[in-house]
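Figure S7 source data.
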Amino acid sequence: MAYRFCPECGEQLEARTVDEQRLQACPKCGFVHYNNPRPCVGVLLVEGGKVLLVQRAVEPFKGYWDIPGGFLNSDEHPTEAARREMLEETGLAVVPTEVLGFWTDRYGEADYYTLSICYLAETAGGREKAGSDAVTMRWFPLDDLPEKIAFNWEREALELLRTRLSD
Ligand SMILES: [Zn+2]
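Tokens for the predicted zinc ion complex:
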């Protein structure tokens, strides 16, 4: 994410190299915009060899298939974010059981990155109903996933999941 002005003092930001990274910094107050990756969660629910994906209602990748999940709220544990996002997007109450892995990825065409924590989970109630950033949802066989998967990290996570389940 590029900014023109310092969020601390309002001075115009300048490009500066810090720790070999090209960043924006404020010449007046010393503020540095590090542009760290933003934490996100994804949740993989698997039943009978099928995984639940949602179709995105919003950009980036509107209309593409997506692992349900989203950005963490300010003061939220990732596990709680996983439960909240699943309820919002799929109507299902879930219990995250383990972490499949972590991935860093660019957020579409945006100039910032995400750090996605991908959980495996089990259902604990609720009724399937797409909502929030999802227009619809569908169970896909792991060996017959849709072509249009939203983010690169999701293709890698789904491939890891498929490999693990076929062992
Ligand atoms: Zn400043």
